[in-house]
Amino acid sequence: MERYFISGTNTGVGKTIFSAWLSKRLLAEGKRVTYVKPVQTGFPADDDAAFVRAHAGLAPGDARVIMTGTEPVAPCFLWETFPFDAVANAINDVAGCDALLVEGAGGLLVPLDMKRQMFEIARACDLRTILVVPNRLGCINDAQLSVRFLASEGLPLAGLAVNDHYASDTLNRERNKRMLDHLLPGSVAYEFGTLTG
């Protein structure tokens, strides 16, 4: 089974759109896909699993959220003690699919509570990280910081997913990707801008 942790250099960079895009692509290859959101705040107004299900064509049971909170804030402000082990066990119990996509909330260092941070889900569930990078000014710095952090924790990077929706123009779109590929050789694994491409 392919096992991925979908994270990003920040919040609002296109992780959910990428999750739907990748799910649709994998389904088109004939693979069975399961999408899991470990924690969703701002719920139900924000329901990433419902978005992925609707736009990728996943069955209701193949896209779900584990923990929800109504206030749109970092999880640490909603849970004094986040049920980390229960969430990790629920993810590790997923079976019957070819690809498991686990979408984090915000970036790698978002606190779940006073002791745990988002990246620890990737470690506990043996997930390779796909880092969503918005193609805009500042993305080169932000991508390098996140990739270096993953390396410092011994966590594998599956690749960068560059979101061209944020590109100011064709010139900057292409040169940002070239520089990312120069500084982080072979890291640009996906390029997307919309649900269709």
TrEMBL record:
Q: Which residues form the active site?
A: 37
Instruction: Give residues annotated as binding substrate.
Output: 41
**What is the annotated signal peptide range for this record?**
none
Q: What does the entry list as the binding residues for Mg(2+)?
A: 16, 48, 103
What are the required cofactors? Mg(2+)
Residues the entry annotates as binding ATP: 12-17, 48, 103-106, 163-164
Q: What is its main location?
A: cytoplasm
Q: Where in the cell is it found?
A: Cytoplasm
One Gene Ontology MF term = magnesium ion binding
Instruction: Print the keywords alphabetically.
Output: ATP-binding, Biotin biosynthesis, Cytoplasm, Ligase, Magnesium, Metal-binding, Nucleotide-binding
Q: Name one GO cellular component term.
A: cytosol
Recorded catalytic activity of this chain's protein: (7R,8S)-7,8-diammoniononanoate + CO2 + ATP = (4R,5S)-dethiobiotin + ADP + phosphate + 3 H(+)
rRNA-binding among the record's keywords?
A: no
Gene3D superfamilies per the UniProt record, alphabetical: P-loop containing nucleotide triphosphate hydrolases
Please name the GO terms of the biological process aspect recorded for this protein, alphabetically: biotin biosynthetic process
Give the matching CDD domains: DTBS
Q: What is its EC number?
A: 6.3.3.3
**Cross-referenced InterPro entries, in alphabetical order?**
DTB_synth_BioD (IPR004472), P-loop_NTPase (IPR027417)
The protein's enzyme class:
ligase
- Which pathway does the UniProt entry assign to this protein? Cofactor biosynthesis; biotin biosynthesis; biotin from 7,8-diaminononanoate: step 1/2
Q: How does it assemble?
A: Homodimer.
For this chain, the family text in UniProt reads:
Belongs to the dethiobiotin synthetase family.
Known function: Catalyzes a mechanistically unusual reaction, the ATP-dependent insertion of CO2 between the N7 and N8 nitrogen atoms of 7,8-diaminopelargonic acid (DAPA, also called 7,8-diammoniononanoate) to form a ureido ring.
Q: Which PANTHER family match?
A: DETHIOBIOTIN SYNTHETASE
Q: What is this protein called?
A: ATP-dependent dethiobiotin synthetase BioD
Q: Which organism is it from?
A: Pseudodesulfovibrio alkaliphilus
Which lineage?
Bacteria, Pseudomonadati, Thermodesulfobacteriota, Desulfovibrionia, Desulfovibrionales
